[in-house]
Amino acid sequence: MQKDWIYVGLTSLFELFWIFGFNVASTWWHWIIIVSLIALDFHFLSKACENLPTGTVYAIFAGIGTIGTTLMDIFIFDGEFNAIKAIFMFILVLGVIGLKLADNSPTNKDTKKEAEA
């Protein structure tokens, strides 16, 4: 199970790498690197989904990608930060945490056990 969470971290990290690449690519060989990063990113995403709930993996992947892209825009590309962005990033984090907690709820585990029996 621990290895699966490492895959979630890697897919989230590589998503930020290729998104950064979209902003700085200026020649054809940059795009080869970006496409390779995307392929590697989706490999890690599929590996993470093998043993973890797909909804949780995707929520974390999308949440980190969204917040990471926003922070990258602010700190690297001199984007604007305001209270509205902060509020919605906070709501997004709460949603991801809520989905993770919902996957660990006793009702969800009981349903899985009954399905396996």
Structure description:
- The protein is mainly alpha-helical.
- It contains 5 helices and no strands.
- It has helices at residues 2-24, 28-49, 54-75, 83-103, 106-116.
- The longest helix is centred in the first third of the chain and has 23 residues, at 2-24.
- The model has no long low-confidence stretch (mean pLDDT 88).
Classify the helix fraction into a percent range: over 70%
Total strand count, please? 0
Helix and strand composition category: mainly alpha
What's the number of helices? 5
SS strand fraction: under 5%
How would you summarize what this structure contains?
The protein has about 120 residues and is an all-alpha fold. About 85% of the residues lie in helices and about 0% in strands.
Write the layout of secondary structure elements.
Elements (H helix, E strand, L loop, with lengths): L1 H23 L3 H22 L4 H22 L7 H21 L2 H11 L1
Please name the defining characteristics of this protein.
single chain, 117 residues, mainly alpha
